[in-house]
Design goal:
The chain is of the alpha/beta class. The protein contains 4 helices and 12 strands, in the order βββαβαββαβαβββββ. The protein binds NADP nicotinamide-adenine-dinucleotide phosphate.
Length: 167
């Protein structure tokens, strides 16, 4: 099963100038805890945005790039969606961004784990607005937490039944 995981702003912003919008330590820990020892799938630009362009430790990293010459240590490079779906077909894997890859892969995700932050900083990259998508239902949300004036909640959305594309 595929699960998307993201931290979004009040209007579903996820990034600006190739970087994240927020740096909330508890959210980083949550991401690590949730994805540890699993496969994470990301776009080449998200890999570039990680510290020193290095993949996530203790996870199987799949990176999507159309560039056939692209390779880097510790990463499985895939050149199209089919290749990715073939690799993860029998496992629980996480779609970890960014904007292009969320848009590409959300129809194949059964679940989305969203850290919703209650502020609206300027953004140039967005996650699809699941609150206004009839296929997606908010099924669970945590209490509200606060970090340095930012409020946030951990939310779970589910892709309702038949709308999940089978691969
Ligand atoms: N808030 C969050 O939770 C979160 C999570 C992750 C990322 N982000 C943010 O999102 C932003 C990056 O997102 P982005 O949309 O610009 O880029 P992205 O989705 O990370 O990566 C885009 C790249 O993926 C490759 N790609 C896309 N579609 C493909 C396909 N169908 N087949 C093969 N390769 C494909 C291409 O790589 P090539 O150019 O190499 O061909 C493309 O340039 C950053 O600001 C980052 O900080 C936020």
């Amino acid at each position: 099963m595929l699960t998307a995981i993201a931290a979004v702003s009040g209007n579903w912003g996820i990034g600006k100038d190739g970087d994240l919008l927020f740096n909330i330590p508890e959210d980083k820990k949550f991401f690590r805890r949730t994805t540890l020892n699993h496969t994470v799938i990301m776009g080449r630009k998200t890999l570039d945005s990680l510290p020193n362009g290095k993949p996530f430790k203790d996870r199987n990293n799949i990176v999507l790039s159309r560039n056939r010459n692209f390779s880097t240590d510790g990463v499985t490079v895939c050149h199209d969606l089919r290749e990715v779906l073939e690799i993860v077909k029998n496992e629980d894997a996480f779609v970890a961004g960014g904007g292009e890859i969320y848009r590409l892969m959300l129809p194949f995700c059964a679940k989305a784990i969203i850290t919703k932050v209650g502020s609206i900083p300027d953004a140039d990259t967005f996650f699809p607005d699941l609150d206004n998508d009839a296929n997606w239902v908010l099924t669970d949300q945590s209490e509200e937490f606060t970090y340095e004036g930012l409020t946030y909640r951990f939310c779970t959305y589910e892709n309702t039944g038949n709308e999940v594309l089978i691969y």
